[in-house]
Every structure is written in structure tokens, then in C-alpha cells.
């Protein structure tokens, strides 16, 4: 891999996250080719010719695109992806290429302001040390906080961070739709916290359904966490219906202890 002046090709560089990543790399002085389905440079050209190839296509197409391009990536080049799910794309990159491999997952969307520092990005080690060291340095220099974990650890954590999170947002949206109360009345009477929740519902529904469908259906751990969430909701409902204040207060105190424990995050922040 040409570490000093690498040519980067982003397959999906014409889309939301791919364009964001292309802008970031260009800001650090790197040369980037943005590739889509109808650009002059094709995914196959990019994979053959670039020192670094990044796959950033819709989740449902990712493994198929990796199968097509990974065998063409030269052995001394670096193959990466930006997919929100890591186990299947990492497995495919390792199986179908001979190159260096790193998996990335930006923990923000393409609407994040360009140049903002402190944004977090997951980095999964795949194959080879040079490519991994290079991308760590590029990301840190650009002001991103690098969080390192395996693909399997990533998908387990994301089963909660994205799986349960989006599931709760969609369940709330469905529940509000079926409440029989006019949206106008809900907006007129919104507390600040409820207004933020409605804002979140709209933000999710503004994005492509395919992205959220894939995050919920293709993360191997999301289904189990959704079941766990349903059990938890039943437990809260039982406690509320039973009307036993002491049980409710005990649950409240236990949760308060859990959420107020001090911890150190990757990136050096102590909360
Ligand atoms: N959006 C987010 O909030 C977010 C956050 C973190 C990570 N991600 C990840 O980023 C990746 C891309 O998501 P996105 O939201 O950026 O999607 P997007 O805006 O729909 O962009 C998809 C890109 O993929 C290209 N593409 C689609 N099918 C292709 C194919 N068969 N061959 C080659 N290129 C193809 C499209 O190019 P053309 O249309 O020009 O052909 C477009 O550039 C996903 O893996 C997602 O998990 C997204």
C-alpha cells in the first residue's frame, strides 16, 4: 500500500455517508475518487486501481458488492467499509480478498457538520497492520474519536444502541398514530422532552426505510434485544398496574444506581 500519497476510491462515494467520508479524507489532503453505479469510474476500476477501496453502499447490497470487488483489490492495498453492521461485511471482506482489511462504522449520519471534532467512529481490525495504523492516524488527525472493537462486539452493542433505540422510536410512532389523539393537540401540549421525541420520530421517518429496516433485520443480535425489551416493557407495565409503590421505587433506585455509575470511555472521557 502506498501510505504516503494513497489514491482512495469510495464505492458509494456519491451517496450520503460515502460523500461525507470522501470530504473528510480530502480535507486531510488525500486524493479521493467517488464511485456510484453511473460514474465514469466503475466499482471494478476503483478496486483494481486504488491503494485504498472503501465500500459504502446500502446495507442490503453490501455483501454482494464486496463479493464482486474484493477479489480485485491488490494484496498490498487496503479494503474498508462503512457499514452500520460489521460481522457479515467483515467476514466477506476477509473471505473474498487477499488485501489488508479494516471495518469502520461512523457513529453519526451524513448530516453531521463537516469538520466537527469529537465524532466517534468504530474501527474493527481485519487483516494486516499497516492499513490499520494508517486509517487510525488519518481519523485521529481529522479529530474523530476512534473506538476499537471486534465486529461481533460491535454488532452486540449496536443491537442496543441502534436496534432497541430505533425499535422504541418506531413503536412510539405506531402507538401515537393509534392513540386517536390529533397530532396537532399533541404538539400544542408537548413538554420539551416529548417535543424532542416527536422530533426524533420525524428524523427517523425522513431517512430511507431500507436503512432502518436493515439495521433492525440484519444485525444478528437485534432480534434477541428486541425480545428483551418486550420483557422489560412487560415488567414495567406489571409494576405500574400492580400499584405497589415500593416495587416501583425499588426498580427506580436500581436503575438510578446502574445509570449513575462512573465509567471511562475510549477516547479518554470520564463520565
Ligand atoms: N446514513 C447514515 O446515517 C449512516 C451512518 C453510518 C453508516 N452508514 C452506512 O453507510 C453506508 C451507505 O449508507 P448511505 O446512507 O450513505 O446510503 P445512500 O445515501 O443511499 O448511498 C448509497 C451509495 O451507494 C451507491 N450504490 C448503491 N448500490 C450500489 C451498487 N450496487 N454498486 C455500487 N454503488 C452502489 C449509490 O450510488 P449511486 O446511487 O450513485 O449509484 C450511493 O452512492 C451503509 O452501509 C450504511 O450502513 C450510514
Task: Tag the structure with descriptive keywords.
271 residues; alpha/beta; Rossmann fold; 6-phosphogluconate dehydrogenase C-terminal fold; 2 domains; seven-stranded mixed sheet; 11 helices; elongated; binds NADP nicotinamide-adenine-dinucleotide phosphate
CATH fold description of the largest domain: Rossmann fold
Question: Which architecture name of the largest domain does CATH use?
Answer: 3-Layer(aba) Sandwich
H/E element sequence = EHEHEHEHEEHEHHHHHH
Which residues form runs of ≥5 with pLDDT under 50?
Answer: none
Number of helices: 11
CATH homologous superfamily placement of the largest domain: NAD(P)-binding Rossmann-like Domain
Question: Care to describe what's here?
Answer:
The model has no long low-confidence stretch (mean pLDDT 95). The protein starts with 6 loop residues before the first strand and ends in a 12-residue tail after the last helix. 54% of the residues lie in helices and 14% in strands. The protein has 2 domains: 7-149, Rossmann fold (3-Layer(aba) Sandwich), CATH 3.40.50.720; 153-259, 6-phosphogluconate dehydrogenase C-terminal fold (Orthogonal Bundle). The protein has a 7-stranded mixed sheet, with helices on both faces. α5 links the parallel β6 (120-127) and β7. It is built from 11 helices and 7 strands. By secondary structure, the protein is of the alpha/beta class. The longest helix is centred in the middle third of the chain and has 28 residues, at 151-178. α3 packs parallel to α4, α6 (151-178) crosses α8 (192-206) and α6 packs across α10. The structure holds NADP nicotinamide-adenine-dinucleotide phosphate (NAP). The site of NADP nicotinamide-adenine-dinucleotide phosphate has 26 residues, from α1, α3 and β5. NADP nicotinamide-adenine-dinucleotide phosphate (NAP) binds at residues 11-12, 14-18, 36-38, 43, 56-59, 61-62, 65, 82-84, 105-106, 109-110, 211.
Amino acid at each position: 500500500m502506498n501510505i504516503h500519497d494513497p489514491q482512495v476510491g469510495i464505492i458509494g462515494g456519491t451517496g450520503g455517508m460515502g460523500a461525507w467520508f470522501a470530504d473528510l479524507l480530502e480535507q486531510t489532503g488525500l486524493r479521493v475518487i467517488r464511485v456510484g453505479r453511473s460514474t465514469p469510474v466503475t466499482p471494478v476500476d476503483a478496486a483494481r486501481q486504488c491503494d485504498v477501496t472503501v465500500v459504502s453502499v446500502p446495507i442490503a447490497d453490501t455483501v454482494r458488492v464486496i463479493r464482486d470487488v474484493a477479489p480485485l483489490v491488490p494484496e498490498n492495498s487496503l479494503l474498508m467499509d462503512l457499514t452500520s453492521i460489521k460481522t457479515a461485511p467483515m467476514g466477506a471482506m476477509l473471505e473474498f480478498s487477499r488485501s489488508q482489511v479494516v471495518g469502520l462504522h461512523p457513529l453519526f449520519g451524513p448530516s453531521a457538520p463537516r469538520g466537527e471534532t469529537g465524532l466517534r467512529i468504530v474501527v474493527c481490525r481485519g487483516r494486516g497492520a499497516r492499513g490499520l495504523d494508517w486509517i487510525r492516524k488519518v481519523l485521529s488527525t481529522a479529530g474523530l474519536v476512534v473506538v476499537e472493537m471486534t465486529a461481533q462486539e460491535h454488532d452486540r452493542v449496536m443491537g442496543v444502541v441502534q436496534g432497541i433505540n430505533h425499535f422504541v422510536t418506531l413503536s412510539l410512532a405506531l402507538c401515537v398514530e393509534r392513540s386517536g389523539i390529533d397530532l396537532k393537540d399533541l404538539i400544542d401540549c408537548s413538554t420539551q422532552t416529548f417535543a424532542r421525541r416527536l422530533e426524533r420520530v420525524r428524523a427517523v421517518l425522513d431517512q430511507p426505510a431500507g436503512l432502518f429496516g436493515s439495521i433492525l433485520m440484519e444485525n444478528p443480535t437485534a432480534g434477541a434485544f428486541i425480545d428483551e425489551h418486550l420483557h422489560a416493557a412487560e415488567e414495567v407495565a406489571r409494576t405500574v398496574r400492580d400499584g405497589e409503590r415500593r416495587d416501583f421505587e425499588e426498580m427506580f433506585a436500581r436503575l438510578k444506581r446502574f445509570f449513575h455509575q462512573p465509567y471511562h470511555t475510549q477516547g479518554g472521557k470520564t463520565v
